[in-house]
Each structure stands twice: as C-alpha cells, then as structure tokens.
C-alpha cells in the first residue's frame, strides 16, 4: 500500500509587528489634533483671551523683526538721528531720548529683551515649581516636609527684595535677571502643583499602576505629570506677566544689563534724564504703556486658558 505524502503546509505570512505600533501612533496623533482643535474652538469663544492673543502676536512679530522695522543702528548713541529730548513729530512719532535716539525704534528693540527675559524667567520658575510640587506630593514624609518649609520661607520673603539681592551680588546681565526672577517666584506654582498631585495620586488607577510594578519615576512622569500639565500651562501664562513686570522693576532700579535696551531700562533712563520734573511725557508713557499692555495681554490669555482647561471656574468671556 502506497501512502501519499501530505502536502507541505503553507507557511504563515510573517507578522508585521510595526503595523500595530504605527496604528497606535497615528491614533495618538489623531487624538492630539482633535484635542488641539477642541481647545482652540473653546478658546476662541473667550473674547478677552482672543484680544490678548492678538496683542501678543503683534508685539512678538515686532520683536522678531526689530532689525527690519527699526534698523540695526537704532541703539547707537554716536549715530543718533535727532536732538536730545525732541517732542513727538512726523519724523519721530514718539520723540527722542536724552541721546537723540528715536524712541519708537528703541521701544521695538526693547520688546525683544523684555519678552525674552519674561518668557525664560517664567519657564524657569514654573519648571522649578513643577518639579518641587510633584516630588513633594508623591514622596510625602520628611522630604515633603522639608520642601514645603522651604517653599513657605520663599512665600513669606518679599519676592522683589530677594530678586534685587540676587541681581545686586551677581554680574549685571540678562541671565542674572532671568535667574533672579526664576529662583524667587516658583513657590506659588509648587503649592498648586503639589495640591493637584495629591488629588491625582488618590485615584484608583494610581494604585493599580503601583500594583502592576510601576516605579516612582513611571508614576510621576506617565500618570501625574500629564494630569497636572493643564494647571502648569495656565500658571505659566499668568507667571509671564509677573516676570515681565519684575524685569522692568529691576531694570528701573538700575540692576539690568546696561548694554541692552529694555522697557524698564528706558524708564530708568528717563528718570536719570529728569523727564519727570521736565514734563517730557513721551519719554515715560510709551515704555510704561508697553509693559502694561503685555502684562494685561498675558493675564487675559492665562485666564482664558484656565477657563478652557477647567470650565468649572466659570471665568467670564
């Protein structure tokens, strides 16, 4: 009896391990796009937030294109185009400073320094506060006690006094101002983030993550941080306005970088030139109004972002 051999089995096609990963990545990006679209749709419903955003965009564009708008030699004292302390005219819409430089051009150049210092100082402050808040809320025990006592000490001490002390003992530069503001304004963020961390870690899925072997770093970065990021984002927009005001105050007190032009530095120059007693309002009003407008614009944006991320606040539109 002849036995027929069974036909060879067809080999299964190789599994494409990259397909599920690719689909999960595309799904994640789709969700992010939908979340961003939903955020923008809700943000646009806040009229005050839109006004603040438009103002920030215009001022930011002016700062970026300052060399094209104001000229690269607008800060030069030796090549000043006008006479000292000229009143506003067709040639100089905002008048001139004590050296004969066009104040409108100086105002455009000053936006670069003021915005840069405000943004970087705010990011440094929020970064320190976020790290301290998350770690203090996660580890508890003696570490949380020590960190919260340090936070309380910074909260009790006047922020401006600490910033002035740091700026006075260090070299006068932009980075000194950024460091002085960043290391003295983080306690409020730390308090808020710690409270949110305690609320997040009391939820059941954190216990499941621990039961499945999730370590401290995994829980803080994968579970706690994404849940506190909306609060951090809203806090950042609010801290920026305070950082810009603090930078202007330090520059007005003569603790800024003397080689750069900022809005606070313009106010300090006006005070030294006697613009207050002489009644040269065009030397004082433009930089002061610019500081107020930017601080107000960031505050409006921060309130709108906070309302979108947490609708229960009920912020007016």
Structure characterization notes:
It is built from 13 helices and no strands. With about 325 residues, it is an all-alpha fold. Helix 4 packs parallel to helix 8. The protein is elongated, with a radius of gyration of 27 Å. The N and C termini lie far apart (about 90 Å). The N terminus is likely disordered.
Summarize this structure briefly.
The chain has helices at 18-44, 47-64, 66-70, 103-139, 141-156, 159-169, 174-182, 187-201, 204-211, 216-252, 263-272, 275-278, 281-309.
> Roughly how many Å is the radius of gyration?
27 Å
Overall body shape: elongated
Q: What share of the residues lie within helices?
A: over 70%
Q: Would you tell me the structural class of the helices and strands?
A: mainly alpha
* Main sheet makeup: none
Proportion in β-strands = under 5%
Mean pLDDT: 85
The SSE string, one letter per element, is: HHHHHHHHHHHHH
Question: Tags for this entry?
Answer:
about 325 residues, mainly alpha, about 0% strand, elongated
Fold topology:
Layout: H1 18-44, H2 47-64, H3 66-70, H4 103-139, H5 141-156, H6 159-169, H7 174-182, H8 187-201, H9 204-211, H10 216-252, H11 263-272, H12 275-278, H13 281-309
């Amino acid at each position: 009896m002849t036995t027929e051999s069974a036909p060879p089995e067809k080999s299964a096609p190789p599994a494409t391990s990259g397909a599920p990963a690719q689909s999960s990545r595309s799904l994640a990006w789709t969700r992010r796009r939908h979340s961003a679209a939903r955020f923008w749709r809700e943000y646009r419903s806040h009229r005050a937030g839109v006004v603040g955003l438009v103002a920030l965009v215009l001022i930011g564009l002016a700062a970026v294109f300052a060399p094209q708008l104001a000229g690269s030699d607008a800060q030069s004292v030796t090549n000043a185009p006008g006479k000292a302390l000229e009143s506003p005219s067709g040639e100089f819409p905002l008048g001139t400073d004590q050296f004969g430089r066009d104040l409108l051009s100086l105002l455009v150049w000053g936006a670069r320094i003021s915005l840069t210092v405000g943004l970087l100082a705010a990011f440094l402050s929020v970064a320190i506060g976020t790290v301290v808040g998350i770690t203090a809320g996660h580890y508890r025990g003696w570490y949380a006690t020590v960190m919260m006592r340090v936070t309380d000490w910074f909260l009790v001490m006047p922020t401006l006094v600490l910033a002035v002390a740091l700026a006075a003992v260090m070299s006068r530069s932009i980075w000194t101002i950024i460091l002085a503001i960043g290391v003295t304004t983080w306690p409020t963020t730390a308090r808020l983030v710690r409270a949110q961390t305690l609320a997040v870690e009391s939820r059941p899925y954190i216990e499941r993550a621990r039961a499945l072997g999730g370590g401290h770093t995994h829980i803080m970065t994968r579970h706690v941080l994404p849940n506190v990021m909306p609060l951090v984002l809203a806090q950042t927009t609010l801290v920026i306005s305070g950082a810009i005001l603090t930078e202007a105050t330090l520059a007005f007190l003569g603790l800024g970088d003397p080689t750069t032009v900022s809005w606070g530095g313009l106010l300090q120059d006006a005070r030294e030139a006697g613009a207050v007693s002489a009644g040269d309002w065009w030397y004082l009003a433009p930089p002061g109004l610019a500081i107020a407008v930017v601080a107000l614009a960031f505050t409006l944006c921060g309130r709108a972002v906070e309302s979108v991320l947490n609708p229960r606040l009920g912020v007016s539109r």
